[in-house]
Amino acid sequence: MLLPLTVGFVAGLTLGSFLPLLPTTILAVLILLLATLVVLEGRGLLLPEKSHLFYGSLLVGVVYWTMATGDGKGARLLQAAGEGPVRITGRVVEPVRQAPGRMVLVVGDLTIEHQSGAEPVEGRLRVTWRKPDRSLGQGDRISLVGRVREPAGLVNPGGFHYEAFLERKGIEAVLSLSGPGQVFLLARPLSLSRWGWWRNVDDWRDRIRRAAIADLTGPALGLFIGLMIGEQGYIDPEVRDAFMVTGTVHILSISGSHLGLVALLGFVGIKQACRALPSAWLLSLSRHVTSTRLAALGTVIPVTFYTLLAGSDIATVRALIMILVFLLAVWLGRAEQLLLALAAAALLILGLDPQALYDISFQLSFLSVLTIALLVHWYLRKEEDREAEADPSYSPFRRMASAWIKPFALVTGGVTLATLPLVAYYFNQIAWMGLVCNFLVVPLAGVLLVPLGLVSVLWLLVSGSETLPLVFLQQSLLDWSVQLVRWMARMPGGEWHVASPPIPAILAYFALLVVAGRPEGKYWIRWGCAMGALLLLLWWGWSPRQAPEKSSVRVTFLDVGQGDACLIELPDGQTVLIDAGAQYDQLDMGRAVVGPYLWDLGIRRLDHVIGTHPQLDHIGGLPWILEKFEVGRFWSNGVPREEPFYQRLLHALQNTRVTESKALQGIPILEAGGCRMVVLNPPPEGRGAESAINQPSSLFSSASTGTKLNNASVVTQLDCGPHSFLFAADLETEGLLRMKDPAASQPIQVVKVPHHGARSSLAPAWIHTLKPEVAVISVGRRNPYGHPSPQVLAAYAQEEARLYRTDRDGAVVVTGSLADRG
Question: From CA 593, how far away is CA 623, in angstroms rounded?
């Protein structure tokens, strides 16, 4: 009865999440399900008890989602804080997350101080403190001053929803601080209190982190911290990419697989230790408890300790719940009923946190464990395999292959195939190499890296030492592991990016796998379903191009925050990318926004890439794009700079052997398919551009650097049939008035407003001459520059242009047909 109860409850939560959007459709689905159950009962294909249990739990799931996910707390927090800086006191209520030069706190029990007094408010606040000067831990009472903001992420088709991510974590508002002395410690919790226990755990984690930073170097440092305390901030993005390509990214953090390995080693070790006891002791012990039960009980200690080291992250706690429920089943003598234990764990997890249903860590962990349970159930039914393990006539290698290698290969392959659609959906990648690489990396992590790390961490905490033991051995093993993964990631064809599969296709894939794996099904039906699943995989791997109609041009202004990124798709299939946003320590717009959007459209080649001018918010994301996509030609204004982001661009051009072309006024970028794209700025040397182009790089450190670079921006005009687009980059007023009149060619329909709508780029006469129908401003939310300027907005409104802003509207997509105007 537990299985229909779980399936119904999960289905109810799913329907409940769509209830605000599709109330009529949800009602129709419920009625259809009821009618289907009645028909199945009437034909004797479904027991009435299971039918009633399924439908009842489905209704409970719908209602429970609606009640448990109601909002409003964040609005009260934001309303109480207001717009200006306020003093806030509160308690750190989650483990502190750290990265080089950054600390992230989640603060609850909030009180906001006003002139009229202190006001307690509900909700949780996420505080990002850059360049911190003190250590903090869970349970600390703190005070700070800052501006509370509503969470706001980037809004792009198929992109990551930052607000929903924080909402699932119960966080209603965010605040950023920078510099020492910004957060004051008011009090630490008492050692014997509830918060004092968690503060001690954070002290453990801080000692481990400091010891690792002092003793380990390079990628080994990030890998060790990720494996031992679950923090990802010290892992180099290039290392993470290598693990992602090889399908072993789950190794980088404390996840369900790590807890499972610790549980397996602990269970087997305790059971073998019991069997090694003297016969008299073993007999005496068996009168009270079996070795299996004792192993199940003893395994709780290492997996719980490992979870605490991970900071009791939500995803790790969910994995712990699954393992504890399974250990309980072992204690009760129901170890073979793994599916029922998994169903009970799912009910417990979703009952505590219904929004976990849409958390990728829960989906991947649960799906992996479910796959393992089904495979174990199927494998145990294979009588010949069990006989092979016990037959003494088999060679030791054959017995080992039957007892260990074959099950491991079965589990690794099955989990890879089962999780492949979710990895493709969330990460735009088919990590087919995981079928091979996990054979090497998982045993390496489970048998060497994790056990050795846990022993060293335990010694560090017990002995009071400030140095990790066996540092040389750990550094060597960690470095060797990273080099192994990097070597495998460089194999030709290993990195295969795809478009995110549609959800109906994912559901169809799982249904086909289930039918294909049923041993009692007809052979031809199972074979046909297996071939259907394979065809879906091949389709996803191909990811055909989703181009506009052959007679249409499509221009997408992506939301990359405070920066520019624009994709042009021409009727003949050519693609042009203008800029790719910024690149910060933890966020590369090329990696996070531009690349996934291109993959979702099936674009793997860019015919032209234009870096309008060497400023971080325009070309910061281009190096990653150049390295991951085939690029036909790269255009720039030729202005050199010494800054690291520009040097990364040069390095990427050298590595990919893409030729850099200088874009000057009058040079055509392309002429094909009824479209022509020409450069309008900067002007050729000797015609007013010397001050912008021919200055030594040392002069770019002056206060006027921004203006000179902006006025040297590559500005282009695209004419496609009756449609005309102007991409004005960051040109300022002087450059706008100097630039060739774009209206001399044909009226401009769409203009990318220069310089994010800055006051310094306001030229009312130029706007009046242009008379655009549509004006698009690429600008970041709550940017510190005050963009866009009210005067700029008023100037375009006066010309009756339809105004779109990426900070308000998200990505803006403009499509025009060459046959018709509009």
Answer: 14
Residue 662, strand partner residues: 636
Q: Which residues contact 40 (CB under 8 A, 6 or more apart)?
A: 46, 51
CA distance 132 to 520: 62
Q: How far is CA 739 from the centre of its chain?
A: 42
Q: How far apart are CA 30 and CA 299, in angstroms?
A: 43
Structure tokens at 735: 């450059």
Judge contact between 715 and 679, C-beta under 8 A: yes
- Number of Cβ within 10 Å of residue 754's Cβ equals 28
Q: pLDDT (tens digit, 9 = 90+) per residue, 692-747?
A: 444 433 333 333 467 889 999 999 999 998 899 999 999 999 888 887 555 455 68
Ranked by mean pLDDT, which of 167-176, 302-311, 486-495, 791-800 comes out on top?
791-800
Question: Does the N-terminal peptide bond of residue 788 adopt cis geometry, omega within 30 degrees of 0?
Answer: yes
Q: Rounded to an integer, what distance in angstroms lies between the CA atom of residue 668 and that of residue 678?
A: 4
User: Of 270, 322, 262, 317, which Cα lies nearest the Cα of 296?
Assistant: 270
Take residue 558 and report the two structure tokens written for it. Answer: 């992506």
**Which residues, 6+ apart, have CB-to-CB distance to 107 below 8 Å?**
88, 90, 91, 92, 93, 124, 125, 126, 127, 142
Amino acid occupying residue 52: H
Which amino acid, one-letter code, is at 288? H
The CA-atom distances, in angstroms, between 755 and each of 628, 647, 727, 752 are 28, 23, 11, 9
Side-chain-side CA neighbours of 397 within 13 Å: the count stands at 0
CA dihedral angle for residue 702, residue 703, residue 704, residue 705, rounded to 10 degrees: 60
Percent helix, percent strand, percent coil in the chain, to nearest 5 = 55, 15, 30
What DSSP line would sit under 679-723, residue for residue? Answer: EEESPPTTTT-HHHHSS-GGGGGSTTHHHHHHHT--EEEEEETTE
Q: Is the pLDDT of residue 455 over 70?
A: yes
**Nearest-5° Cα angle at 349, 196 to 366:** 120
Q: Which two tokens stand for residue 382?
A: 């294979």
Structure tokens at 617: 């918010």
- φ, ψ for residue 506, nearest 5 deg: -65, -45
Q: Report d(CA 636, CA 660) in Å as an integer.
A: 7
Place of tokens 């200006």: 84
Q: How many CB atoms within 10 Å of residue 276?
A: 9
Whether residue 168 contacts residue 176, with contact meaning beta carbons closer than 8 Å, is answered with no
For residue 658, the 8-state DSSP code is: P
Q: How far apart are CA 55 and CA 34, in angstroms?
A: 7
- In order of 25, 30, 254, the CA distances from 21 in angstroms are 9, 15, 36
For residue 752, give the 3-state DSSP assignment: strand
- pTM as predicted: 0.85
- Three-state SS string over 644-657 comes to HHHHHHHHHHHHHC
SS3 state at 304:
helix
Q: Maximum Cα–Cα distance for the chain, whole Å?
A: 101
